[in-house]
Amino acid sequence: MIKxxxxxxxxxxxxxxxxxxxxxAWLRMSEIAFEHVSGISGLRKAPxxxxxxxxxxxxVVADSHLIIDHLRKQHGSRLDDxxxxxxxxxxxxxxxxxxxxxxxxxxxxxxxxDDTWPLIKQNFFGGLPFxxxxxxxxxxxxxxxxxLHLQGFGRHSDEEVLAMTTEMFAALSELLGDNHYLQGxxxxxxxxxxxxxxxxxxxxxxxxxxxxxxCSFENLVRYCERIRDEYYPAHAFNRV
Length: 240
Ligand SMILES: N[C@@H](CCC(=O)N[C@@H](CS)C(=O)NCC(=O)O)C(=O)O
Hints:
Blueprint: E1 2-6, H1 18-29, E2 34-38, H2 42-45, E3 53-56, E4 59-62, H3 64-75, H4 85-111, H5 117-125, H6 132-151, H7 158-176, H8 189-202, H9 209-215, H10 218-231
Parallel strand pairs: 1-2
Antiparallel strand pairs: 1-3, 3-4
Helix pairs in contact: 1-3, 1-8, 4-6, 4-7, 4-8, 7-9, 8-9, 8-10
This protein binds glutathione.
Glutathione binds next to α3.
């Protein structure tokens, strides 16, 4: 059985990492059986120091993109069937803009914004004994802020990041229109990526100006609910 190393349920979603959610959604949409191995301790075993990674009967692969490439080659996926070259190209480019741009918007909205940070701190570090409970989150937050500064997002104002994030939601909403899935009436790999990112804003318990913007796009909310209801058991999103 394929093992997906993940953080585990948090904030009302199956995983707080959109990259874990991408692989999880892709496996479900592809109807490939897998199990989660959840916990922060997975980071210590992670070949690239990040989650997700998988163990596919002894073959270890890290990075959501490389994991999906591997799974596609080894197990096949109905998500790949019948798309034109142009549709595949759009899926690649849009998917990467979510991985490389919307991801940093999400990180900013959670780790930098003072209204959301206490929830993140409590959820990720609340179980540590004193004084680690105070120290570790401070160090972790400053590392994330440093990464955001180097990446560039950390140099923008709240308003600027929120506007950039809203632009991404508006583009996804436009692309989706009245379709069931982003590229038509059946799911593609792009839906696994888009759902993974959107559910972190729309279906999670974290309520802030970023989630409010995401939820203002009704078709994106319906899209997330539809995929959640179609592919996930109720307990995965704390709905029992
Ligand atoms: N490019 C990687 C990104 C994975 C990633 O950034 N994972 C984050 C969680 S969202 C992580 O494990 N962070 C822990 C750390 O950097 O210590 C992928 O697509 O899988």
